[in-house]
């Protein structure tokens, strides 16, 4: 049996970090790059990590997905807003019965992509718990954490045990690289759990132009963070995905221990890129509305973000 070949589509902070960690663990990893191609071709791809130290490799890189070899596993680390446009690249890179893993935030991202993929491809979700950002071209700054939860969504594997085994294979790779990785049976619950952190911190960082440290230090914003977290956990429960009772408290404590962090939505807004409002807010609000659960503070945050995005992108 040949060693699985891994493709990374979206070599930013997330794809670059996890891709290099897999390469460090002796996996065969191929990277699709855009703007960073020339820099990485000359100097390699580098991660400056608080926990892992400095890691620098010169892996196989490509400008065009058509030039990549067929990959058995494809990790997608682009923004959810680009998923439909990414389908041609996925189809060019995917080996027969390849496993596609969406390392993205939000709800329903697999549901939206599934109809665009052929039935022979497996689709999984990868929930990344990490603080990282892209610094200079070809350089990733990893500030904290790095765990990942993986779960099967859809595809040729219909037996739950087989689905879990597929997710476990990827989790084992990440574990061999020294990362906390878990295979989970229920993808929807895992996505709601990740949303508990993403919903308050991503949006508030944009609306209030602040990182996590400032948001946690002020009593009013801390109370607002907690309220939005409780709305998300309540919505998850109402939608049939109960989360651990102590989840909010643990997330608040973990964030207080982190160094100051600007979430990905802050960077998207600062760079005048579309924000992931549908995946992180709109789908959660829609699902909650369908079961009669109100999320007024989350709804107000979304309204504010839509206003800011429209004004930013129109100038």
From TrEMBL:
GO terms for cellular component: cytoplasm. Belongs to the ketopantoate reductase family. It comes from Azomonas agilis. Pfam families: ApbA (PF02558), ApbA_C (PF08546). The keyword Oxidoreductase applies. Keywords: NADP, Oxidoreductase, Pantothenate biosynthesis. Residues 6-154 form the Ketopantoate reductase N-terminal domain. Catalyzes the NADPH-dependent reduction of ketopantoate into pantoic acid. Residues 187-308 form the Ketopantoate reductase C-terminal domain. Gene3D superfamilies: N-(1-d-carboxylethyl)-l-norvaline Dehydrogenase, domain 2, NAD(P)-binding Rossmann-like Domain. Its EC number is 1.1.1.169. It catalyses: (R)-pantoate + NADP(+) = 2-dehydropantoate + NADPH + H(+). This is 2-dehydropantoate 2-reductase. SUPFAM superfamilies: 6-phosphogluconate dehydrogenase C-terminal domain-like (SSF48179), NAD(P)-binding Rossmann-fold domains (SSF51735). GO terms for biological process: pantothenate biosynthetic process. Pathway: Cofactor biosynthesis; (R)-pantothenate biosynthesis; (R)-pantoate from 3-methyl-2-oxobutanoate: step 2/2. The keyword Zinc-finger does not apply. It is an enzyme of class 1 (oxidoreductase). InterPro entries: 6-PGluconate_DH-like_C_sf, 6PGD_dom2, ApbA, KPA_reductase, KPR-Related, KPR_N, NAD(P)-bd_dom_sf. GO terms for molecular function: 2-dehydropantoate 2-reductase activity.
